[in-house]
Specification:
There is one protein chain. With 421 residues, the protein is mainly α. It has one domain: Up-down Bundle (Growth Hormone, Chain: A), CATH 1.20.1250. 75% of the residues lie in helices and 0% in strands. α9 runs antiparallel to α14, α13 packs parallel to α18 and α15 runs antiparallel to α16. The longest helix is centred in the middle third of the chain and has 30 residues. The N terminus is likely disordered.
């Protein structure tokens, strides 16, 4: 019997162990290291005490990091398509580990910009690459697999925020950066060792390739397989534009909240340690949202799940200005964290369904760069609005409006031409 026939027969039934789940877990661990970028807000107080810098100045470090992300991710995506995820994960581990380690030696503002630049050059292994690679392994249960991979970013703050707070309070902010640098290098290096780009490289096929069943979600998947898009072709479609705007509008409030929620909560009377724990809880609760949101999208479809999650996020954001105690703070954290997470798998899933796997790493890198523009605006807006008005009210209302607008745009989202119904 020919080898190709054996492989085809093997994939008609679910194997007892499918290596794609190992890839999903590796992507999870790679993505969770991004939480240390979100932990910058926990460093605000000790840095302000030592250097006297304002909130706007410190938040500009995160915006600078995202600017590097915007510039570098399309190139990293193209390099991953050419050289493979294993090599790029290894290079990312080196850049992130060294960059964070050097932050512990910083004495001037430009030092932080330089060292965050170095760390940011490794961020591809924590964002775009995981959401692209895992899709190449799954047709069936793609939403769940994306949920697992994307849960890493949610787990990041859950681990990074209390870790950073403990290290700062116990050993000082400099030693905290030293430890964070070592941890990120170790985690990404270990993840790189198990990384494989495509199931075909192991003589396998994507899970469910021969078992696509028509349903609300699988109809999207079936339609998406009609054409493999080049990057230039994809960028000329209406669907690319709308998806880019949706991701930008969602990234703006996410980064605004993740960078400024700890300083906001402290100003509202929430103890520093409780506020840092709340930041971690947002990530932790979002894991539940990402997993359930991915699983739900396998049933009702990615588009419907995206619309629902963005509208609920918009509504929840309107309650944040009224937080005035640890109790109300955690009520917001739980509700926002869940729906923030539930939204995450949908956009990468739609991108993969619409444009195929041929250039998915590069295409995903471009989308992450577009989202990065929203992240820059969000991080800067929170700091500037607070420095001018002494309040985050306007910034939080803007965040709510962004989520709502993203939901409206998602209603009008349609597959690009060349993807037939």
């Amino acid at each position: 019997m020919p080898i190709t026939s054996k492989i085809s027969n093997h994939t008609k039934k679910d194997p007892k162990f499918f290596y794609g789940w190992v890839i999903a877990v590796c992507c999870f661990f790679g993505a969770q290291t991004y939480g240390f970028f979100f932990s910058l807000g926990i460093f605000f107080k000790p840095l302000q005490q030592e250097f006297g810098w304002g909130t706007g100045v410190l938040s500009s470090i995160h915006s600078f990091h995202v600017a590097i992300l915007v510039i570098s991710l399309p190139l990293l995506g193209r390099m991953t398509d050419k050289y493979g995820a294993k090599r790029i994960f290894g290079i990312s581990a080196l850049f992130m580990g060294v960059g964070f380690f050097l932050c512990g030696m910083a004495d001037k503002l430009w030092h932080f910009y330089l060292f965050y630049l170095i760390a940011s050059l490794g961020v591809g292994a924590t964002t775009a690459i995981p959401t692209a690679i895992v899709q190449k392994w799954f047709i069936k249960k793609k939403g769940l697999a994306l949920g697992i991979a994307a849960s890493g970013i949610g787990a990041g703050p859950l681990i990074a925020a209390p870790t950073a707070d403990f290290l700062i309070s116990s050993y000082g902010w400099r030693n905290a950066y030293f430890v964070i640098g070592g941890l990120t290098w170790l985690i990404l290096t270990l993840a790189s060792l198990a990384m494989v780009d495509r199931p075909e490289d192991m003589g396998l096929q994507p899970l469910g390739k021969d078992e696509i069943q028509l349903s609300a979600a699988n109809e999207e998947k079936d339609n998406s397989c009609k054409k493999e898009w080049t990057t230039n072709e994809a960028m000329k479609t209406r669907a690319f534009l709308i998806l880019g705007l949706i991701w930008l509008l969602c990234a703006l409030p996410i980064h605004l909240i993740m960078i400024h929620i700890v300083p906001f909560a402290v100003n509202a009377g929430v103890p520093q340690t409780v506020a840092a724990t709340g930041l971690g809880f947002i990530g932790g609760i979002s894991i539940v949202g990402r997993l359930s949101g991915g699983a739900i999208s396998d049933v009702i479809g990615l588009k419907k799940a995206l619309i629902f999650a963005t509208f609920i996020s918009a509504f929840v954001m309107t309650g944040l200005p009224f937080v005035n105690s640890s109790r109300t703070f955690f009520i917001f954290v739980i509700i926002y964290g869940y729906f923030y997470g539930a939204r995450v798998p949908q956009i990468p899933g739609l991108i993969g369904n619409y444009f195929g796997n041929k250039n998915l790493n590069e295409i995903m890198g471009i989308f992450w760069s577009i989202a990065g523009i929203g992240a820059i605006i969000g991080a800067l807006t929170g700091g500037v609005v607070f420095d001018i008005t002494g309040s985050y009210l306007i910034a939080f209302l803007l965040a709510s409006g962004c989520f709502g607008t993203a939901g409206i745009l998602a209603i009008f989202l349609k597959p690009p031409r060349g993807v037939t119904n």
